[in-house]
Amino acid sequence: MRVPILKQGPYLIASVQSALTDADLLQMRDDLARLVGQHRSHGVVVDVTALDVLDSFAARTLRTMAYAIRLRGAQMVIVGIQPEVAFAMVQLGLSLPGVDTALDLEEGLALLNRKTSEDHASEG
Amino acid sequence: MRVPILKQGPYLIASVQSALTDADLLQMRDDLARLVGQHRSHGVVVDVTALDVLDSFAARTLRTMAYAIRLRGAQMVIVGIQPEVAFAMVQLGLSLPGVDTALDLEEGLALLNRKTSEDHASEG
Amino acid sequence: MKDEVRVTIKSDVDVVAARQEGRALAAHLGFSTGDLALIATAISEVARNIVNYAKQGEIILKVAEKDGRYGIVVVARDQGPGIADVARAMQDGHSTSGGLGLGLPGSKRVMDDFDIVSEVDKGTTVTMKKWAR
Amino acid sequence: MKDEVRVTIKSDVDVVAARQEGRALAAHLGFSTGDLALIATAISEVARNIVNYAKQGEIILKVAEKDGRYGIVVVARDQGPGIADVARAMQDGHSTSGGLGLGLPGSKRVMDDFDIVSEVDKGTTVTMKKWAR
Ligand SMILES: Nc1ncnc2c1ncn2[C@@H]1O[C@H](COP(=O)(O)OP(=O)(O)O)[C@@H](O)[C@H]1O
Ligand SMILES: Nc1ncnc2c1ncn2[C@@H]1O[C@H](COP(=O)(O)OP(=O)(O)O)[C@@H](O)[C@H]1O
Predict the structure, then answer these.
(1) Domain total for chain B?
(2) What is this model's ipTM?
């Protein structure tokens, strides 16, 4: 199932569903990179609250995605990693170095607000 | 004995007692990951002042905990590692790579304030 | 509850099916939420390896019992190209496909037992077990 | 002061008891605070290995004396599965359980004497000694 992507002001919100296949994930990656340009979005929230597994392929893809989106001039934050998913990732040896994370959608949007005003602060 | 966890403003403080069993430590790990979500905490202080031993299991669990809590969007700092405990860890070959540590509770809270206001700094 | 569940693995959709079946069986056996995530992740890793490296194969999920304790057995089997250097494949970070190379060693870390038998041109069988606490 | 303290090791609670007994005995023998932490940590490591790998066993704490100097002897004994390759188990970072693999080599580093005898299917005995300065 294609991950639904919503536009909310200057941001995009992608809500990952539980039965996420590798193809869905790659599709989301491509959709986001394209939509960031189309909507001139400043930030992207990837909400993985519904996800019960974040394996090595998903971790790698999310990392790649965060870097690519940064190269497109936007910020990405992953929200909603469940406690047991976080522990499983760590025990498997997976990590998301250099990728921003926040508790949930609200915190994620707040983080993006801070991050993007940071850019603007140094601009002026 | 279950490690008591206190909420103080945006932070959680876990005060480890001396006779910490492996089960207590794992319980604290799970409690913290859950409570960070429940209280929307931005930071966690794990106070090990009372601990007279920090062995390889404890070191590994604290590491796992710090990484998992970061994936949940919060910061974790360990405070109160006693000098002789620190020396014993070093001589055994144990370390806490990538995990923040501070002298005591006060310094730990100050570190969390800096870490979280780092995000906020550019807000105003 | 069936004694054995078999999931044919041919594509990424089957990887999702295998980890969902595994999680359901493990939940039935009384594993904690934390363990369910570990089991589902390990299944995801070995199932994806079948798709990536062997094109097709199967995941077999079984119940183990010993001294009144229950466990889950996960067998990932394929007749793919096999692994020439198994010791190397088990090292953190070793990947022949630009992956993270954490699937096999990571799965070993989170399961109680992990066994891998592989023969070049014959195929690979990974057998993993975890006991409910 | 008793000449010998025995702690039966069956669970993580006994691991705490063993290191507390060891610390108390060593404090009595005049070890420095620094040494107390080293001794307690080494006891914790070998006691946990009993729980993890052999399910049960015991820790025996004894006093040694030589030329007027006192020392502590820690024996960790089990009738568990034993260790097939002791040399390998003594290497930093080698673990069959996803642990840090520092328990045995680390304990050896911090004690004055360290001896390990293990036979597959028979069990493992670790004997460590440290002298008060
Ligand atoms: N079923 C399999 N058939 C053939 N080769 C495999 C199989 N599973 C794993 N391998 C080999 O082992 C290596 C390590 O696997 P893994 O640890 O899962 O990491 P990754 O898949 O990220 O490369 C792979 O790169 C591949 O060369
Ligand atoms: N009492 C024991 N019985 C059987 N095997 C043991 C015992 N103690 C240690 N081992 C083996 O030696 C390895 C290394 O032990 P150790 O250095 O304490 O690291 P860790 O416990 O973190 O794996 C263990 O992984 C285990 O395979």
Answers:
(1) 1
(2) 0.86
